[in-house]
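Appendix C reproduces, verbatim, an entry submitted by the partner laboratory led by Prof. M.T., so that reviewers can inspect both the input and the predicted structure.
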Amino acid sequence: MLEIGTKAPEFTLQDQNGELRSLSDYRGQKVVLYFYPKDMTGGCTKQACAFGELYPQFREKGAVVLGVSKDSVASHKKFEEKYGLPFTLLSDPEKTVIQAYDVWKEKKNYGKTTMGVVRTTYLIDEDGMIIRAYEKVNAGGNPAQMLEDVQ
């Protein structure tokens, strides 16, 4: 996990509509950057829907929410449409951003060790600095926690 007080690594990825989005596009706004394992799975859906419900409050506070996984643009589009997600989902199939933000790690599941995305959320300030970082977050509770942190 990246350290609080460090510069957030710059990136450019495709969103769910195939448009290129860069972190620098959001300078002057707080950015909630959350990494999740997979579209349409239980925990990831719960987290995305909770961010979606709170999204108007994030916007009121001058913050945007960006979700990142290694799923394809097409998968993100289906996820957005099925659940009416109002925020940007970024596709990182090459795992370049996932690795830059140090969220690709060894995971144990049912006694089996695999590599995967560890659910992690960063809060990046208006100048691109990491001001909060949470690893192995609770999918359902993370969005409310992040809304508090945006204050």
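The chain has a mean pLDDT of 96. Additional entries are available on request from the coordinating office.
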